[in-house]
Every structure is written in structure tokens, then in C-alpha cells.
Amino acid sequence: MPSPGRAWPLVGRAAELDDLEAYLTEATDGPGGAVLLEGEAGVGRTSLVEALQSGAQLLGIRVCGGPDALDELRRPCEDGSARLVVLEDVHRWDDDELTGLAEASADGFPPRTLVVLTLRPVPHRPEVTHVVSRWTRAGARYLELRPLPTAAAVELAEAIVGANLGPSLRGAVSTAGGNPRFVVDVVTAAHDTGALVAVEGGIDAVLPGWRGEVEDVVRSRVAYLGDEVLALLSAASVLGVSFVVVDLAALADRPVADVWRTLRHALAAGVVQARGDRLVFRHDVVRAALYSGIDLDDRRALHARAAWTLREAGAPQAVVATHLERSR
Ligand SMILES: Nc1ncnc2c1ncn2[C@@H]1O[C@H](COP(=O)(O)OP(=O)(O)OP(=O)(O)O)[C@@H](O)[C@H]1O
Ligand SMILES: [Mg+2]
Fold first, then answer.
1. What integer pLDDT is reported at residue 271 of this predicted model?
2. Residue 75, domain extent
3. What's the number of domains the chain is made of?
4. 7 lies in a domain?
5. Residue 184 Cβ < 6 Å to ligand 1
6. pLDDT at position 5
7. Which of 115, 131, 165, 315 could form a disulfide with 169 if both were Cys (CB 3.0 to 4.6 A apart)?
8. Are residues 18 and 133 both part of a single domain?
9. Does a structural domain hold residue 136?
């Protein structure tokens, strides 16, 4: 059943929904319980808890969410009926609210109640870490929501367009790295720019120029990372989908330790991941968006500097030549 605001079904979350429903049954049967649901921006936390809320309502469990949910949690439930209390996006709560939330775990969980807290890993705030520690000590479970597998991301795109994807659109969807919000952004941009056409066996995005629209949207999606992280990732985008951290430090003219300190936030946010001494952009669409967002003169200068840096580091001539070409 589509949740409000979503015209397509929930895909690829059967296992996570099963886990949450099992916690709900266990908690509402008696002792109460809590779950910390964490995942990168746009990974689908809200969609998943909405599905849980729909299921709970069908079971006659009282569902509380929104701004009053914390008050509801503090109020003893007079009639002793089962409750699901959803506290969304605690990374955005103000300090006083977070203090109240930390305290709310002091006496253990309210009986016959499952509390679900959702949060993004970034921005990192000590007040949020404090809440997570307090709730963890009280016995809250932790559920990390990971990006969708490729097949589920394609299934999502197909559910939105209502047809099989042609090769070009499928390729564009794969740049979303399994993040459902980016999948929706890719398909919506293709649709809104009129790039979608019927092809044999499905729908494809064959008209040129629509990717710029996706990149604009994706740049606004990652703005929450802040200027310092974005500036460094933009420089990294010149080096490619994967890059060596010392090369990035040389390119940005900053000490390696300093660069790691900034990259920590990008790692926590799930924008890049570590692969040995390299880092890899987890969603190619983010790299492309940052790259196309660099002013043309700056981009040329970065390519010139990358050519020099990589030559010094002993990179193959062909790689150096590509950067030189793009520096003109
Ligand atoms: N499993 C899914 N199946 C279908 N659509 C999904 C799924 N997960 C997310 N979406 C869609 O992707 C978009 C982002 O999802 P959602 O808002 O649930 O993510 P979120 O993690 O709550 O984001 P935020 O970090 O902004 O709170 C929405 O358009 C939603 O409908
Ligand atoms: Mg959300």
C-alpha cells in the first residue's frame, strides 16, 4: 500500500520491515523497547517507519508521531494499550529537546510501547551522541538502513515510470548507488525534462542534456554537508570516482591529516567509502554533480594541478594527459 505522498510501493525493505515488526510485537506484548534507525540522507528511513506505522494501525496499535510524540512518550499510558511512538530526525532536534529525549530513557522503556528514533549520521553533534548512548545503555536496538541493492533500485525506478528501463536510463539509475532519493531524482529529472521516450520493451532516456537537471538537484541534496566538506569533495571529483587521499591532499594543498579530518564527515555521511588507501564516491551521481558545479576556470586549474600531482606520484602518462587536456 503506497504511503501518503508516495505513488509507488515500498521496494527492497522486506527484511528490515520484518525485523521492525518483530520488535514491535515483542515490545508491545509487555516490556516495551526501542530502536535507533540510522542511515544516510534519503536512504528511506521515513518510508520504512511509515510502512511500520501502517502495519501497526492494522493491528490496532496506537501510533504517535510528529511534534507531540516526546510528550506522549513521557505520559504514562493510562489504559495500558499498545503504542508505537516514532521520533523522527533526532539529529535536527534542538539541544533542550535532546536533553529531554536523553532523560526519557532514564527509567527504562514504557511498557507495551515501541519507540523508534530515526537519525542521519551527519551532522555529528555531541548532544545527539549523548542521546544515542543513553538509549543504547537502556537497551535500545540499532538498525542501520543501508542503500538498496542494484536490483531493488531498478525495481523502484521501474515502479515509478511504470515500465522496464532501457539501457541508458538503467545506467543513470545505477549512478544513484542504491540511494532511493537519488533514484527518484534521476527518474523525475528525466521525466520533467521530457527526456523519456518509449523504446522497444520499455522506456529510456535518450534525449541529451537531461543529466544537468539531475546534477542541480543532487547538489542541493548534499548541501547539508557544509562548505568545507563540499569544497574538498569537489576537488576530489576532479580526480575521479576513486582517488588516493595523499593525491587529494596535494591537489588541495593541505596536510594529509587535515584532509582526513574533513573527510571523516563525508565517510560518516556515506558519501565516500574507504577501500584501502583509496576513497570511492558511493554515488557516482554525487561526484558528477560536484564536478559540474565547479566554475569552469577553477575546474581547468584543478585539472592542471592534478596533472602535475599525478605525474609526480608516478601515475600513467595517459591519465596525466587526460588531465592536461581538460585543463585547456
Ligand atoms: N524502499 C523504498 N521504496 C520505494 N521508495 C522509496 C523507498 N525508500 C525511499 N523511497 C523514496 O525515496 C525518497 C526518500 O525517502 P525517505 O524520505 O523515506 O528517506 P529518508 O531517509 O527519510 O530521508 P531524509 O534523510 O531526508 O529524512 C522518497 O521519495 C521515498 O518515497
Ligand atoms: Mg526522513
1. 97
2. 14-144
3. 3
4. no
5. yes
6. 64
7. 165
8. yes
9. yes
Q: How far is the CA of 22 from the centre of ligand 1 (A)?
A: 22
Longest dimension (CA), the chain: 75
What is the mean pLDDT of each successive set of 10 residues along the chain, which is 328 residues long?
68 97 94 96 97 95 86 74 94 94 90 95 92 96 97 97 96 97 97 94 90 95 96 98 96 96 95 92 98 97 97 96 97
Cross-strand pairs, 34: 115
pLDDT at residue number 208: 80
CB 243 within 8 A of CB 256: no
Distance 76 CA to ligand 1 centre (A): 32
> Rounded distance, CA 145 to CA 288, Å?
24
Co-location of 72 and 167 in the same domain: no
Do residues 281 and 245 both lie within one domain? yes
Q: What is the pLDDT of residue 1?
A: 36
User: Of 3, 36, 47, which is best to mutate to test ligand 1, by the most ligand atoms within 8 angstroms of its C-beta?
Assistant: 47
131 and 18 housed in the same domain: yes
| Closest C-alpha to ligand 1, atom 9 | 44
Q: Give me 116's grid cell.
A: 523508534
In a domain, residue 184? The reply is: yes
Whether residue 122 sits in one domain with residue 46: yes
Cβ of 42 less than 6 Å from ligand 1: yes
Question: In whole angstroms, what is the distance from residue 164 CA to residue 200 CA?
Answer: 10
Residue whose CA lies nearest to ligand 1 atom number 19: 44
CA of 249 to the centre of ligand 2 (A): 34
Q: Supply the pLDDT for residue 66.
A: 82
- Does 240 lie in the same domain as 190? no
Among 244, 236, 234, 245, CA closest to 289: 234
* Cα(145) to centroid(ligand 1), Å: 11
In this structure, how many other beta carbons lie within 10 angstroms of the beta carbon of residue 12?
Answer: 17
